[in-house]
Amino acid sequence: MRIENLAAIASSGMRLESQRLAQSAANTANVNTPGYEARRIVAASRRGGGVSGKSVPTYGARGQRAQADAGASPLSNTDVAEERVTQLSSARAFQANVAVLRTADEVLGELIDRRA
Q1: pLDDT, the chain, mean
Q2: pLDDT in tens, 42-76
Q3: Domain span at residue 63?
Q4: Closest to 14 in 3D by CA, of 87, 101, 83, 88
Q5: Virtual CA dihedral for 29, 31, 32, 35, nearest 10 degrees?
Q6: What's the CA angle centered on 3, arms 22 and 101, to 5 degrees?
Q7: pLDDT at 53
Q8: Distance CA 42, CA 109 (A)
Q9: Rounded CA gap, 25 and 69, in Å?
Q10: How many structural domains comprise the chain?
C-alpha cells in the first residue's frame, strides 16, 4: 500500500463519518415532525480503497400522535437513542481516521527527511 493511498482512504472515512453525523443531526432535528422518515448513511467500499456513503431510508415503526380534533397523525420514525449512538460512534470513527491521516503524514515526512 502506498502512503498517498492511505491518506486518501483515511480522508474518505472522514467524509463518510461527516455524512453520518449530518444525517443523524437531521433525523434528530425532525424527531417531532409528523411523517418524517429518518434516513441513515450506508458505507460502500470504493475501488482502489476508501469508502463512500449513500443515504437510504431507515425502516421502522411509526408512532401515532393524537390530535385535538380526535384525529391522528403519523410521527417520525426517528429513534433518538439510536441517533445518539450513531453520533458517538461516528465521532470516534472520525477521530480514528484523523489519527491515521496524521500518522501517514508523519511517516511521509520521515521518508522525505531520510531521502534528502
Answers
A1: 86
A2: 999 998 889 999 999 886 665 554 445 555 557 78
A3: 3-115
A4: 101
A5: 110
A6: 35
A7: 96
A8: 34
A9: 31
A10: 1
